[in-house]
Amino acid sequence: MTYKEAENILYKTKWKTATCQQGKKCWCRMIIPVKKIVCDESENEGLYIAGSGELNKRAAEHIVKLHNNWLKKKEVNNDQYRT
Question: What is the pLDDT of residues 57-70, one digit of tens each?
Answer without folding.
Answer: 999 999 999 999 99
